[in-house]
Design goal:
The protein is built from three helices and four strands, in the order αβββαβα. It has 86 residues and is an alpha+beta fold. Strands 1-2-3-4 form a four-stranded mixed beta sheet, with no helix packed on it.
């Protein structure tokens, strides 16, 4: 996962239109090269309420990128996981 590094966030800030969203559930908002709007959570996703996650994702398509350790602790009845391969 290279996206959360400061250098990547800085170097690609214009390409991905990165924006810091402050608050108790802080995120970095951005979009992929093909226009998918995503949030990079800066908090433990599994600790947020389902309603809080719905509110966060209201204007976004997904949380991205998430590591395997983050995905493993998510409730599969609440979250759908799509694994991207290269």
């Amino acid at each position: 996962m290279s996206d959360p590094t400061f250098s990547n966030l800085y170097l690609f800030r214009h390409v991905h239109d990165f924006r810091y969203l402050p608050g108790p559930l802080a995120c970095i908002a951005g979009h992929t090269y093909d226009g998918v709007r995503y949030l990079l959570p800066l908090f433990e996703l599994q600790r947020a309420s389902v309603e809080a996650v719905r509110v966060l994702l209201h204007e976004y398509d997904c949380f991205y990128p998430l590591g395997a350790s983050q995905i493993e602790v998510l409730d599969p009845d609440v979250f759908r996981v799509d694994v991207l391969t290269r």
